[in-house]
Design goal:
Shape: elongated
CATH superfamily of the largest domain: Spore Coat Polysaccharide Biosynthesis Protein SpsA, Chain A
Bound molecules: iron/sulfur cluster
CATH topology of the largest domain: Spore Coat Polysaccharide Biosynthesis Protein SpsA, Chain A
CATH architecture of the largest domain: Alpha-Beta Complex
Radius of gyration: 33 Å
Structural class: alpha+beta
Number of domains: 3
Largest sheet: 8 strands, antiparallel
Strand content: 15-25%
Number of helices: 17
Helix content: 25-40%
Length: 583
Amino acid sequence: PFCVLEPSCSNSIVNSYQFYTDSDFYTQSAFEFAQMLWNFRTYKIRKILEMKLREKISFHSGIDNMVLPWILNHPGLYIPLWAWHKLTRHLKWRRNYETLPENTSQIEQRIIQEQKKREKNWGICSNCFLRYICDKGDNPFLVSQFKLNPSSGNPIRNPLYFRSYIPRYSVRVDEEKRSKFSKLEQLYEEGIQTTLHHRPWKEIAPEDYKIENRMTHYMPGAVRWFAFNCGELQSTPLCKTEPPLTISVTFGGGFAEQIGFSFGAHIKIVCPMIAQSHKLILHINEKGHYVLIRDKEIIYPTEFFNASLVPPRLPQKLEPRISVWNIDGEIVTQGITLWKPEKVSEGDKTIKPKFSFLYVCSRYSNRLRASLLSIAHQRQFDLNQVEIVVAYVPDLDATDDVLDCFESAFPNIKIIRSPFSQSYWKSKGFLINASLPLCSADWVILIDADIVLHPNFLSTMDKIGPDIPFVAPDGRKMLTPETTSQILLGLIRPWEQYDTLMEGPGEWRRREADGIPIGYCQCCRKEVFQKIKYPDFNHFEGADWFFGRSVVQTFGPEHRLTGIPLLHLDHGGSQWYGSQKHR
Ligand code: SF4
């Protein structure tokens, strides 16, 4: 009770009125529900939550209502009661409503009577100005130890009257969440404004997509998804494009555990379904940063146990699909609309690239910069025909920064980011296989981030005949730490003194690994990857050699670029991939 403490402590007092209205605590129904769940094991809690979510929204809810009491361990009592209620709810004698007075003044009188009746039970507290926000000594221990001391004055009705201005504290977990969400607010505004005020780029009709590997039931203006298993179902791609992109889809007419979007096997941007229907908006800006909006509220995508499927940003080639997890029988998708800024949606008028460089870069941003510069300084080749795909983990090192600078300095060379979450950073094969769809050129050049190209590399590659599918450089020169440092600091510009560097100190490796072209630079025509998958080990060792050998065995010996060796920057050890240090 307020009256047992000094008035200066009033803002710290929490009675039941404050407990259920202060946002630091709980809403009453949620608190009581949580108290009830506390007694159950997790699998039962999960079932109860699913049933509560579906209550009154699914035609299965009748069955759920019968199963729920069984789960709650009161089947014997509940089922006959439920049946009795069903059979008798229409009978007049059960409708014990009281009629209201006929006019307003009678209603007001009635209210005063009811208040007096109630306040009569409050005893000494009935004249206290805190009686509407206090438990009035409803605690035998306190009442036995302290004397209640009512104060007169205008009654206070706001339960948070004393708590309005107290400082709020949050734990680190909440702080991190709050900062995550605050970064999303600008994206949220952009997304909502786009859907409200911009003309759609595409409206996807039901017949424009189908459910992959499953019967698709078309309805007027919608697609119905049926499922009797718990896994993911996804649609065929809704489009192929690049960021920016905004997608809106309405889910309803059933229930599923997770709904949202898929961007391939390793990216799932989904969220739980918590109501009868949801409108989801996924807004992706030109850099691939995104926000998921469920019914006009930001929602952080679901993180899956044991699988990192939510990267900080999306790749720069997008093939969005609808993704639905654990459908409860059926669900309907409709109203699929896509937006893109006008100038972007007019169509891609750039030249089709001839060469796609594919880097996998984990903490090698320092060396990646030197490697990219060696592409930018190729001689006698139109760099508009080059694209560079970089598979990397955002925020792990300065790769994003390096790519931003490179794009700004060399706008004619297209950079395509292929971001992954950190759990994949040592799975080189996975990163390569997942990034290959982003490579649009006929040639894919798998290259390490610590390789500096010969200035005539591309002009020589350009002369290769159409019957050659696999090409490798004429060996590599392992540069010393001193030379590497000078290159990284910009004191040596390799494209200006390549021959001098080749003749300088360092080990020369013309043929190695039994003559099989290995991973520092393997050039393959696109069709090679249709027959041979890059080995998907969860470590880097040997995968490049196995891949090179498979290509040689399938397509015949590689073509060597005679007189075109590469420079290999030193990185202080053999752990060249997935480095723990920033190199
Ligand atoms: S309502 Fe009763 S218990 Fe509460 S502060 Fe007033 S006198 Fe004390």
